[in-house]
Amino acid sequence: GAAQNGVEAIDADRLVLDLLTPAQVAEFRARTDLPITIWVPAALDPGEAALEQVRRELKVYLAAPAYAAMFRRAGLFEADAIVTQVSALGSIEQVRERIAEYHAAGATTVALVPVTAEDRGGERRLDALGGPYLGLRAAVIIRGRAAETGDDATLVPAQGAATHSARDNRSHHT
After folding, report:
1. Are 103 and 109 within 8 A, CB to CB?
2. N or C: which end of the chain has fewer CB within 10 A?
3. Which of 57, 72, 53 is nearest to 19 (CA)?
4. For residue 114, which of 151, 64, 145, 63 has the smallest C-alpha distance?
5. What is the pLDDT of residues 108-164, one digit of tens each?
6. Sign of the C-alpha dihedral, residues 153, 53, 83, 118?
7. Is 69 helix (H, G, I), strand (E, B) or coil?
């Protein structure tokens, strides 16, 4: 709430969010000038096993009353609808479009968390987002272990943003 946002502004140097829609990220952007990182499940051309993995992970969040209420306020009531709104799923073009939506909403960095049920280690997704992706508001894609959660992630910063690679413990500027 508002009180928590005040504490964040005093004590934090960035805001890390998880499983939110681009519109929800925009709401946070309206309340803070801190850099925002959003963690987003991502999969190229997901099949049923990949979608089920995201649903299972989402159910953990939906068990928390605050998350369930947040999704209801956003007009999202069914797990499948929430999955499509908080993930980057589909063709490479659809994944790129979702990343761009998060950047347009105010995210400084989009951390793509691989959905690995059908793409072990997210390697197919990482390869697809290589070189050609760099022209879409990002200059660096970092492969490495994400320090905050222990999950593998691809960090896609907006141009001009600083990011941190957990693997080599150095800041990278784009």
Report:
1. no
2. N
3. 57
4. 151
5. 988 888 888 888 777 777 677 764 443 333 322 333 333 333 334 455 555 444 433
6. positive
7. helix
Question: CA 5 → CA 26, 29, 174, distances in Å?
Answer: 14, 11, 27
Q: Are strands 142-145 and 152-157 parallel, antiparallel or unpaired?
A: antiparallel
- Residue 63 DSSP symbol: T
Q: Which two tokens stand for residue 72?
A: 């209801």
Q: Which long-range contacts (CB under 8 A, 24 or more apart) does 31-35 make?
A: 31/2, 31/5, 32/5, 32/8, 34/8, 34/9, 35/108, 35/109, 35/161, 35/162
**Encoding tokens for residue 39?**
């963690």
Q: And the tokens for 68? A: 């369930």
Structure tokens at 57: 């992970």
Token pair of 35 as six digits: 């850099």
